[in-house]
Design brief:
Elements (H helix, E strand, L loop, with lengths): L4 H26 L25 H8 L4 E2 L8 E2 L1 H20 L6 H29 L4 H23 L7 E2 L5 E2 L13 H25 L24 E2 L7 E7 L4 H13 L5 E7 L18 H10 L4 H10 L1 H10 L3 H9 L10 H16 L8 E4 L2 E3 L8 H11 L15
Parallel strand pairs: 6-7
Antiparallel strand pairs: 1-2, 3-4, 5-7, 6-8, 8-9
Helix pairs in contact: 1-3, 1-5, 3-4, 3-6, 4-5, 8-9, 8-11, 8-12
């Protein structure tokens, strides 16, 4: 008896979902060596080379607070794509089992398939909603998972609707097939034992994958508190701005560029983790824009100098200007690339109270002193940089590993850091 078309579609959809979720898991796991890697996000390896922008959605997804769970227990957490990969592997197994055991005309087996495919379908709906409302970008591989889930569920519905309606063809002694008259076949009693076994099998697939991940994920405890300290954390010229009043938290200094996408990503992850409530944060402006920063030769973030001046001019509203800059960073950078005065115009329109301060000698001098503070502390030309009570959160821990590393840095304190001395950059 040949397998039915919906069964073959489920087989193909589960295989595709396994591929997409496996690729996402692979990208996640590559970051576990604390190095910087490309995020491929391509259905065909090598395709991204001709379209670098294709990775933006995957980068946003991977670096978001929604890419993993148990983030404070494991470095980077448990990638959501991993149990997804196990679920699709299970669905692939079930599709093969239906074909091998010739059960794809069994009403109960078809109904169980519908229930099983509901898992990736509902999960895809939740994460699709998050991508649309929170990330405002869609990862191509994620869309592949969503599509596989929808197609597989649709095929399962079709299988359930048609199950039992047509009996298997009979064969004559000469081997010719003769179809029986079509007649509805009663489903018979529900085989709860088989359904329970099916659920247990699914749990085992996911449990084994998660258990293996927990067993083999590397332990980076030895890096906590070893990435450097501030030599001169004092603020004699008042260049630091408050990032929120949590005066009972541990004193934290963030070196940031208000138009830096990584800084904006760090802020989102920090707030999502709830760890911001344990920190009394202040920011030091370090715009990666050569119109004011002599340590770089080009404007990595065009308009950052003007926006940094606005932050320093805003006084108690400095954190609001930074939040606005994080939200509109791409828009401001694009405009400033075409017109060097655009950033100042845009931030002044959003915060009219800083208009008369922008571009003044006082604002420029204060921003210069902020940069001098970075030089005095021998800081790298890099944003963001985070120091908790003078001890640096390792640069590798400001993205995927932030929850895990910051939780341990807060618990460890800053009593025994190992300072490092990067090469000083002079004007």
């Amino acid at each position: 008896m040949r397998p039915r078309i919906p069964t073959l579609v489920m087989l193909a959809a589960s295989a595709a979902g396994l591929y997409f979720s496996g690729y996402l898991t692979s990208d996640f796991v590559e970051h576990l060596d604390r190095q910087t890697h490309d995020i491929h996000c391509s259905f065909i390896p090598g395709l991204l080379a001709s379209d670098p922008s294709a990775a933006s959605g995957c980068h946003a997804a991977l670096m978001s607070p929604y890419s993993s769970v148990f983030r404070d227990a494991l470095w980077g957490g448990l990638p959501i794509a991993l149990p997804g990969m196990a679920v699709f592997a299970y669905l692939l197994y079930r599709s093969v089992e239906l074909i091998v055991n010739k059960r794809d005309r069994d009403v109960h087996a078809a109904r169980f398939a519908v229930a099983a495919w509901l898992v990736p379908l509902l999960t895809s709906a939740v994460f699709g909603y998050i991508a649309a409302t929170q990330l405002s970008e869609f990862c191509k591989l994620c869309v592949g998972i969503y599509s596989s889930s929808a197609v597989g569920f649709g095929a399962a519905i079709a299988l359930a609707v048609g199950a039992g309606k047509t009996a298997a063809p009979l064969q004559t002694e000469e081997g010719e097939e003769v179809a029986e008259d079509e007649a509805p076949a009663g489903p018979g009693p529900t085989p709860w034992g088989q359904h329970i076994v099916g659920v247990v099998e699914g749990v085992v697939f996911v449990g084994v994958a998660v258990g293996l991940y927990f067993s083999f994920v590397p332990n980076f405890d030895k890096y906590i508190g070893t990435c450097g300290t501030l030599e001169k954390p004092e603020d004699p010229y008042g260049v630091m701005v408050s990032l929120g009043a949590h005066h009972t938290g541990k004193a934290t200094i963030e070196v940031l560029d208000p138009l830096c996408p990584s800084c904006a990503g760090f802020e989102k992850r920090l707030v999502a983790s709830g760890l911001d409530a344990e920190l009394d944060r202040k920011a030091v402006l370090f715009p990666l824009d050569n119109t004011c920063n002599w340590m770089i030769s080009s404007a990595l973030h065009p308009g950052a100098c003007a926006v940094s001046e606005a932050v320093l001019c805003a006084g108690e509203n400095a954190d609001k200007v930074i939040a606005w800059a994080f939200e509109h960073s791409e828009e401001v950078r694009t405009a400033a690339t075409a017109d060097p005065t655009a950033a100042a115009t845009m931030v002044a329109a959003a915060f009219p109270e800083v208009k008369d301060c922008l571009g003044t000698a006082a604002a420029k001098q204060k921003l210069n002193r902020s940069l001098r503070w970075a030089v005095a502390n021998h800081l790298q030309v890099l944003t963001p940089q985070v120091y908790v009570e003078g001890t640096k959160l390792c640069d590798e821990d400001t993205d995927m590993g932030m929850d895990w590393a910051l939780t341990r840095l807060l618990a460890k304190g800053a009593s025994t850091p190992t300072p490092t001395t990067p090469t000083e950059v002079t004007p």
